[in-house]
Amino acid sequence: MIYISSSCVKFKTIAESVEFLAKNGITHIELSGGTNYYPTFEKDLLELKDKYGLTYQIHNYFPPPKQHFVLNLASLNDEIFNTAINHCKKAITLAQKLGANKYGLHAGFFIDPVVDDLGKKMRISTISNKEDAIKRFCKGFNILQENSGSIDLYVENNVISASNYKTYKENIFMLTNSHEYFALKKDIDFNLLLDIAHLKVSCKTLGLNFEKEFETLWDQSYYIHLSDNDGLLDSNQTISQKSSLYNLLKNQNFSGKTFSLEIYNNFDEVKNTYQLLNELL
What we know:
By secondary structure, the chain is of the alpha/beta class.
């Protein structure tokens, strides 16, 4: 099953993004961040679902909040933590209304970044006690698990770029490699949403063997985000037959896995990768 992330197209409202994808033949859509809140978005999504026969999944920073914030379930700041919990509860409720069966959220951060820093070089901020932050994340995840009902929760691996590592001289994000995955798995029983592009950058930054990490975590995940990059920045590029990532993918077992494409090039390149992945399946 292959989904296209709504973040692959750039419209102000989620309804515009979803209708564009639907009119281009995409019926499996992962609802993600990048659009603005408006009062009737939920009604619009239900109407579009019926009109085009759509299937949805929900990812991290969706539904769009009235006021933007950083979703950090590992924050030791009670206000930030509670805002994250409340958002995730809304996402789970919306998933149930829309007939989705998965909600994937990012693993936590060991700092409290500001909205404008996301996806960029982080400005200097206080680093939390990592052990306490992981405990806070686990507490939050267990709260969400108790409220998840029929929705399967997934935790997505974070990306640590070279620029952020250089700034802090250490890893400021949870769950960036297989060692951290298995350590967190001992604390909570969670499903892994494996973002291959995040892993590629993190491995380059941390000096890890990407192919080995890929092989290890591929077998641990049944929900996978796909895009490509140069290993230095999570740039959400297309996957081509000439890429080393394609050569890795074509030798894998795809059975039982759900994929979501997160490609921010023009839509023709999104469709090309979509077709390429369909051929592999």
